[in-house]
Amino acid sequence: MTDLICVGSIAGSYGVRGEVRLKSYCAVPEDIETYSPLTDENGAERYPLVLTRAIKNGFAARLGGVETKEQADAIKGLRLFAHRDQLPSLPDDEFYHTDLIGLEVYDTGGALLGRVKSVQNHGAADLLEVHGPGLKATVLLPFTLANVPTVDLERGRVVADPPDGLF
Fold it and tell me: Where in the chain is the domain with CATH 2.30.30.240?
């Protein structure tokens, strides 16, 4: 598990006065401001953050060190991270996506199916993108209690009971 959790990203500039378009990945989108200052992926740069208003698909925000539209445009795509100890602890049946990435996926019989490459959400529910040596293509496994009854972060694995024919 990593000490940094991605909580948002910069989608570009907003207006001409140095505000940025911010996408929040938090369960309560406004909570991203409470984790300020945020860092880059390496933890080297720190960015104080103040939300200024809600906009379509996110927020307009002021980011420390960004004063002009050109500076805001230059950091488009920047992912913003918070330290794990700043974030709330989760119930036993919830996980940060970053903790699931890289876990080995086994079936209920103990056979290795692959490894979690990413966690995706296209609106309905989370999907585990599973890659493995025996798979011809990516498999998207619905991340539900029925399909993934066990997540063992300490052992770095999940146990899956996928629908017939998925693998």
Answer: 97-160
The CATH code of domain 4-86 reads 2.40.30.60
Burial 28-47 (b: 16+ CB within 10 A, else e): ebeebbebbebbeeeeeeeb
Q: What pLDDT, on the 0 to 100 scale, is given for residue 97?
A: 87
- Is 1's pLDDT higher than 70? no
- Does 50 have pLDDT greater than 80? yes
CA–CA gap between residue 31 and residue 29 (Å, rounded): 5
CA 158 to chain centroid, in Å, comes to 18
Q: C-alpha 91: how far from its chain's center?
A: 17
SS3 100: helix
Backbone angles phi, psi at 96, to 5 degrees: -75, 135
Pairing of strands 38-39, 46-47: antiparallel
Query: Which tokens in the block code for residue 1?
Result: 């598990």
- Fold classification of 97-160 is SH3 type barrels. (2.30.30)
Q: Where in the chain is the domain with CATH 2.40.30.60?
A: 4-86
